[in-house]
Amino acid sequence: xxxxxxxxxxxxxxxxxxxxxxxxxxxxxxxxxxxxxxxxxxxxxxxxxxxxxxxxxxxxxxxxxxxxxxxxxxxxxxxxxxxxxxxxxxxxxxxxxxxxxxxxxxxxxxxxxxxxxxxxxxxxxxxxxxxxxxxxxxxxxxxxxxxxxxxxxxxxxxxxxxxxxxxxxxxxxxxxxxxxxxxxxxxxxxxxxxxxxxxxxxxxxxxxxxxxxxxxxxxxxxxxxxxxxxxxxxxxxxxxxxxxxxxxxxxxxxxxxxxxxxxxxxxxxxxxxxxxxxxxxxxxxxxxxxxxxxxxxxxxxxxxxxxxxxxxxxxxxxxxxxxxxxxxxxxxxxxxxxxxxxxxxxxxxxxxxxxxxxxxxxxxxxxxxxxxxxxxxxxxxxxxxxxxxxxxxxxxxxxxxxxxxxxxxxxxxxxx
Length: 416
Ligand SMILES: [Fe+2]
Hints:
The chain is of the alpha+beta class. The chain has helices at about 5-25, 140-150, 170-180, 185, 215-220, 245-250, 260-275, 300-310, and strands spanning about 25-35, 45-50, 60-65, 70-75, 75-80, 80-90, 95-105, 110, 115, 125-130, 160, 190-195, 230, 235-240, 280-285, 315-320, 325-330, 330, 335, 345, 350-355, 375, 385-390, 395-400, 405-410.
């Protein structure tokens, strides 16, 4: 939990950031990766930023030296009166620290940020955050700012977001607030989110469960941006969109219904990942957890998605939605593993984790009555996970905002 001193300093930092976003250029800088066209090269990195001054000549200047010089012109779109710029950095060298700035001489430049390109050896660090939503006690993302600040200290190569990025996806100010507060992390660690129920339209009708325009305007993600995958190191990451499963269940509109195009897409994605001998791990992330209880336990979602995850031997399934941290016993072929240990064999089934604790008001300690529960803290807290991924292991550690260790385990890839 935040101390009064921490809270005060983060509120000040947030207000300063908002002020800067209005009066200086550029703002809301964030990175994303897309392995679709990499053809043996490190995954290209896309830089996206916003400006309230339209300029036909905006650039990313990048390179492997702290005074970068290679120039890439950005493309421009207009969203709610501000310009959004995008530039893709391709043909990166593996395992290098890249430096960049974005903007123009006419409208100003960002500071110089840096990111690590995809390594050749398959060893890298991933951050896991979820439910940054600006609801009660997290107005203006003040708690999210503390989590982001802590996560940034671990210097992750990529950040996975479990969804519920904002509390009300119809509010432009919330999307901009999140991207402003989290810029210092997102500008150096590609932000790869899936959307949650709060991010999308909950009103029945033609737009039910669909994202708002601001999401498409402000983010640049692979595929259809809702369901997408990318390869990084020896991992196939697959993000899937669970919509508003709770509201969709009575209507028979829960996502990933067998026979649906999205079900076929995921089945094919997982089949390809399984057959790819260059990959060691399959990680799926989504908003609604498979293992839950009470009003968050959506039977139709579990019935739709779990057989696919088990059929294709997914190693790790990450989710958010509930503002708790929970680690579950491995599941394989419809059975729950008995072993609950800090060292697990990936051959024993899929590990399911819920981590929706990056700002949204905590919903209380995790559900100990869930049959699969392996670990959940005794008290509510804000926390996040840091995954150290290697070809033969995934070390998963969960920390609170003061960097106290909450949970830790290792998933081992053993020869079958
Ligand atoms: Fe949610």
